[in-house]
Design goal:
The complex is a heterodimer of chains A (426) and B (474). Chain A is of the alpha/beta class and 426 residues long. Chain A is built from twelve helices and 16 strands. Chain A has a domain at 79-365: Alpha-Beta Barrel (TIM Barrel), CATH 3.20.20. In chain A, 27% of the residues lie in helices and 22% in strands. In chain A, strands 1, 2, 3, 4, 5, 14, 15 and 16 form an eight-stranded mixed β-sheet that branches. In chain A, helix 4 (188-205) crosses helix 5. The longest helix of chain A has 18 residues, at 188-205. Chain A is globular. Chain B has helices at 2-26, 155-160, 210-216, 225-254, 267-277, 289-301, 319-325, 349-355, 373-386, 393-396, 402-408, and strands spanning 57-65, 71-80, 83-88, 98-101, 106-109, 111-116, 164-169, 177-185, 203-207, 281-285, 306-310, 328-331, 360-362, 425-428, 439-444, 447-451. Chain B folds into two domains: 1-44, no CATH class; 110-416, TIM Barrel. The model of chain B is unreliable at 1-30 (pLDDT under 50). In chain B, helix 4 packs across helix 5, helix 4 (225-254) runs parallel beside helix 6 and helix 8 packs across helix 9.
């Protein structure tokens, strides 16, 4: 719990950047609050000191507020990238350092200890490219360590700020399907025993002193132990990539053996086949709902219907496994809606469900009193591909709606110039 | 088509030759008969595609995009004997026609994807199925993608439910010259010949930039972009030389010279030489504007034609040159940044290319993307409008059917809804420039080959039989 208090302090430090923020009223839009207030037509959203003050139907006295006329528009909470490597990678392939990958190192025998909160670059071009399309925060983590765990991920703001970390060491991730087995020992028989042993050692080490002069004969490094203790306590989620029904059942069984674990399943390709069990076990999922091919023998039952079937069974669905194109998560959600997910759950999968999954729904994910004012004004239905984010606020501040992509566009929109293009500043 | 006519010629020659042999046996007179020149069979793997028989189909009350810029409200389309017979109002259909009321729905030409690896990189993946790159030599013009295609790739059915009726399947981009691509109809068969688009010209895959130099950098080269270009030029020069050898053989033979030897066939140079002649269409993977600029000059140097640059994420920087050179750009809506040569990808690329009056194509290169090419076009169209490039939906549909058909040399047969063309048609549940629209009916050569509302009729690949989710809505 100490850890959690520390994080919220970090969160409030973040807010010091926006104390000067103007008070803003967004007026006239259809607002999807994603709170118990539901959807409100012709609403007024009041933002004060970077936080949501209220959302109400109709107009109110607005002196002291900068008014943004949003008649005919749609307003939602900022989208939360559910599973990304934002801030860790610019170009992943043959282009220098990529902080979302690592090579083997002695500091960790399992990959649990690695901590991306040191690695995040808030000025990566991906940040502006994502935020101008309505993605205002994200979970970010490594994708490959060659070990059991892909390190400790962080929750970050995509605002144009110096310290984007909302919560460091916010979750840990691992892979228990084909790709996990291929990484650790070549077999599920190896990876599961490795995982069980790692969790058991962390449990054993809870409350023990593990300074350099203390004896420790476990197989995990001390750094790994420190990283895994909040996992076995259930203080932070463990994200498990599992795809076929049999793998998902193993994960459910793990949860039954260790009910304190806060387990989230990523991909869950055949989740629809065990949807009721997942719902009963209170295990949420993060989906890539467009993957509908038998890419491996652990994904034979893949279908576009997965998200809708899971949600109908009562499983909390989040959507958004992408990095460079996390802006397309809303298209993914829209396609899930076209294939049976309710529209409300489609938007929830990009906002409040993600916030709940990471335990930050006190700060983000809906538009209600006291939450960080990450707000998007859309031209229309945000799940419709032809609509767009027209204005984005992060922590109550209107962001600059440009990116290097918009600058490239503006430079080349007029191809005829007197001088070479490099002299054209858009 | 050229390939077919040459083939017919060949059959004729073979028949004549057989006759002459018989005559030769019975008549031992003086050899007044000249031996025929050796002819290469240019179609050794002929198409065995057979359209499914169908009654006439009359689609009524639809919003019709004809794929060449026309939009017609409350309109009917008549499909008969595999062809589009009429578009208009008050059409009279034969008595036994199937009437499909498409009120509130949209009708478009079938989508054509110029860049697919279905069957050559099928699902499931893994090395056993990795058949798309013959990464053993930087120039492998001698390999043909069709010899790698596994028709049981479930990706074909998935593409079908996205309204894709025709696609070009290409080798990968590991090599400077990757080999021949093949155009297929999306009616999965047991052998690839069952799917081959009759009379379609072959494509040939080439690749610029990072991939070849990465793959061969430690395998003898090329290891740089300049090495790549030297490789293309040498390959073309060798092909020119090869062609001269054959030209000389035919000329000498024609002149009646004695002891004229048939040159040794070289399958690699044969394909390259046909590409130089324009009988095989060059499709080149090329991201960066400067790489494309270089290739436009290589094209002039060796006097060949590039049908399309694929993955052309920087076409917007040189759209006017591309228009002038009459080279198409096949593009994604928004892929970017996965490698350095894709770093400058922008979402307005497709409409900017279109606005410069160059040929724009939406392509997939993906077994997932191919299922939603209408959405890719819609995203690009919408981004263009926001940037002030006002293109109608009717014009934008050219990116999905007409322009790809042109770049594949099959526009006379398909790619638009025009009288006399193949009846490759999609009925969409709604405006296809929407996330929520889905292909409801897909017709290929006038036959209904996908009906979203009739699960029992959906094709299921052999691989998916008896597996979890068999026959499920995918």
């Amino acid at each position: 719990m100490n850890r959690l208090i520390k994080y919220s302090l970090l969160g409030s430090m973040l807010l010091t950047h926006i104390v000067d923020a103007k008070n803003i009223a967004i007026v006239g839009a259809k607002v999807h609050t994603m709170s118990s207030q539901g959807t409100i037509d012709n609403a007024t959203v009041l933002i004060k000191n970077g936080k949501i003050q209220s959302v109400m139907h109709g107009e109110t006295a607005l002196s002291g507020y900068e008014v943004i006329d949003a008649k005919g528009k749609v307003v939602t909470p900022g989208l939360i990238g559910a599973s990304t490597s934002l801030g860790l990678v610019d170009v992943g392939f043959s282009a220098g350092t990529n902080d979302s990958n690592s090579s083997l190192t002695s500091i960790s025998k399992t990959g649990a200890a690695f901590d991306v909160s040191y690695a995040i670059n808030p000025e990566s071009s991906l940040m502006a490219i994502a935020r101008i399309e309505g993605v205002t925060s994200a979970a970010t983590s490594m994708v490959r360590t060659g070990q059991l765990f892909n390190g400790q991920g962080a929750l970050i703001s995509l605002g144009d700020i110096i310290d984007p970390v909302i919560q460091a060491r916010a979750f840990i991730s691992t892979r228990l399907g084909n790709n996990g087995a291929d990484t650790v020992g070549g077999s599920r028989s190896v990876i599961w025993v490795t995982l069980e042993k790692a969790l058991a050692e962390a449990k054993f080490a809870m409350g023990q002193s593990l300074t350099p002069i203390d004896e420790w004969h476990g197989e995990l490094s001390r750094a790994d132990i420190a990283a895994l203790i909040p996992v076995v306590k259930g203080e932070i989620p463990i994200l498990v990539d599992a795809r076929r029904a049999a793998d998902i059942r193993q994960v459910i069984a793990l949860k039954q053996r260790q009910p304190q674990l806060n387990i989230v399943i990523t991909y869950a390709t055949e989740g629809w086949r065990v949807a009721t069990e997942l719902a009963d076990s209170n295990i949420p999922v993060i989906l890539d709902p467009e993957a509908n091919l038998p890419f491996g023998f652990d994904q034979l039952g893949s279908t576009l219907k997965n998200a809708g079937r899971l949600a109908s069974a009562g499983v909390k669905v989040s959507i958004g496994i992408e990095t460079h194109n996390i802006r397309l998560a809303r298209q993914h959600a829209g396609n899930a809606v076209a294939n049976g997910l309710s529209w409300d759950q489609g938007l929830a999968a990009l906002t409040i469900n993600v916030a709940k999954l990471y335990g930050i729904d006190d700060k983000l994910g809906s538009l209600e009193f006291g939450k960080i004012a990450d707000v998007v004004i859309w031209s229309g239905d945000p799940l419709e591909i032809t609509e767009a984010a027209e204005l984005v606020l992060i922590s109550g501040e209107k962001i600059d709606m440009h990116s290097r992509q918009s600058k490239l566009r503006d430079r080349y929109l007029k191809l005829q110039t007197d001088k070479p293009m490099q002299y054209v500043r858009p | 088509m050229k390939i077919l006519s040459e083939n017919r010629q060949l059959f004729k020659l073979a028949a004549v030759a057989g006759l002459l042999t018989l005559l030769g046996c019975s008549d031992s007179g003086e050899g007044a008969i000249k031996e025929l020149a050796f002819k290469i069979n240019q179609n050794p793997f002929p198409s065995t595609y057979k359209p499914i028989a169908s009654k006439s189909i009359l689609i009524t009350n639809a919003t019709v995009l004809d794929g060449i810029g026309g939009v017609f409200n409350d309109t009917s389309v008549l499909l008969q004997d595999g062809k589009i017979v009429a578009i208009g109002n008050d059409l009279s259909a034969p008595d036994e026609s199937v009437i499909v009321d498409a009120k509130g729905k949209w009708v478009t030409p079938g989508i054509i994807d110029v860049h697919s690896h279905l069957g050559v990189y099928p699902a499931p993946g893994g090395t056993a199925h990795s058949d798309g790159n013959e990464a053993t030599n930087p120039v492998t013009a001698e390999v043909w993608a069709e010899h790698s295609i596994w028709p049981q790739d479930a990706g074909f059915q998935r593409a079908l439910s996205g309204g894709v009726t025709v696609m070009q399947i290409l080798p990968g981009s590991a090599n400077l010259v990757g080999g021949r691509g093949v155009t297929v109809k999306n009616l999965p068969g047991v052998t690839v010949q069952d799917m081959k688009f009759p009379d379609a010209p072959y494509g040939m895959k080439m690749a610029c930039g990072e991939n070849p130099k990465r793959v061969y950098g430690k395998k003898g080269g090329p290891s740089t972009r300049m090495g790549n270009v030297a490789g293309y030029r040498q390959a073309w020069a060798d092909a020119q030389n090869y062609q001269r050898t054959w030209d000389k053989y035919y000329a000498d033979h024609e002149a009646g010279k004695k002891d004229v030897k048939v040159p040794k066939r070289d399958l690699k140079l044969e394909t390259l030489a046909l590409a130089l002649k324009g009988e095989i269409l060059v499709h080149m993977h090329c991201y960066r504007a400067d790489d494309m600029g270089t290739m436009l000059d290589v094209m002039k140097e060796f006097n060949y034609k590039i049908a399309a640059f694929h993955h052309a994420v920087e076409s917007y920087k040189i759209a006017e040159q591309l228009a002038q050179a009459n080279v198409c750009s096949a593009m994604w809506a928004d892929w970017w940044g996965f490698k350095l040569e894709a770093y400058d990808g922008i979402q307005e690329n497709i409409p900017m290319v279109h606005a410069a009056k160059a040929c724009a194509i939406v392509h997939s290169d993906s077994d997932l993307g191919i299922q939603r090419l209408n959405q890719e076009a819609a995203k690009a169209w919408a981004k263009g409008r926001r940037a002030g490039i006002d293109i109608s939906q009717a014009d934008a549909w050219q990116w999905l059917s007409a322009n790809p058909a042109k770049s594949l040399g099959i526009f006379e047969q398909t790619g638009s809804l025009e009288k006399g063309k193949n009846a490759d048609v999609v009925i969409w549940t709604a405006d296809p420039f929407s996330t929520y629209a889905q292909a409801e009916h897909v017709y290929l050569d006038g036959a209904l080959i996908y009906d979203r509302n009739d699960p029992a009729s959906w094709p299921v690949s052999d691989f998916e039989l008896g597996q979890p989710g068999e026959g499920d809505s995918k």
